[in-house]
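To the structural biology subgroup,

Please find below the input and predicted structure for carbonic anhydrase, which we are adding to the shared reference set this quarter. The sequence is reproduced verbatim from the submission form. If anyone notices a discrepancy with their own records, reply to this email rather than editing the shared folder directly, so we keep one authoritative version.
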Amino acid sequence: MCSDCEGEGVDRRDFLKVGAVGLVAIGLSGASWSALAAESAAPALSPDAALAALKSGNELYVSHPELCSIDLAAQRKAVAGHQAPWATIISCADSRVPPELIFGGQGVGELFVARNAGNLVDTATLGTVEYGAAVLGSPLIVVLAHTSCGAVKAACDVVTKNATYPGAIGPMIEPILPAAIATRSEAGDFVDNTAKESARRTVGRLAASSKLLADLTGAGKLKIVAAIYDLETGVVTYIE
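Predicted structure (tokenized):
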């Protein structure tokens, strides 16, 4: 985050207070995990503080985007030897949804980001966020959907029009189909309702499919939340 943004929300120094280098996950030990953890310095930031920082950053992005300039050269030098991201974002690959920008002009070394069409969780993404939480110590995971999502619309068209898609696109969107079926009769925008429901279900699957994440969440060291980004307004709304 740029120096001009330090007065907004959580102070930048609080973001990157560096604790002892090591593994923060529960019950993980051994030389292999220690070697992985040695590259990082776990951020001394609680899950709630990380969430507050993202909310503050998005408010800045919406209200004063001109303040979100970044001294990338200085940041690059500061994090070249280690990384301590204070939030993990699972977001869509859509070019209009850059997490580092929509959360207030974060630069390098701040956010641990996994992106794919539809902000879904496959084996690679699950392993990525487990690494972020268990090795790098990221205290927050946000599953970030967005309005007018093409992957979600494709799933909705499968449900309503029996649409088919070439290559790997069809199998890719299959995890979204249950959300589309569940929201088909709801009032409002079908695609956006499905995007929110899919993100909500993904949060549940993360904890259910990963003992690492479940243990960290149970110990209060990790929070997993769903959110949706509005392409027109720039606002991120968190989903209960």
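Summary notes: Residues 18-239 form a domain with the Beta-carbonic Anhydrase; Chain A fold (CATH 3.40.1050.10). The radius of gyration is 18 Å.

Regards,
Lab coordination
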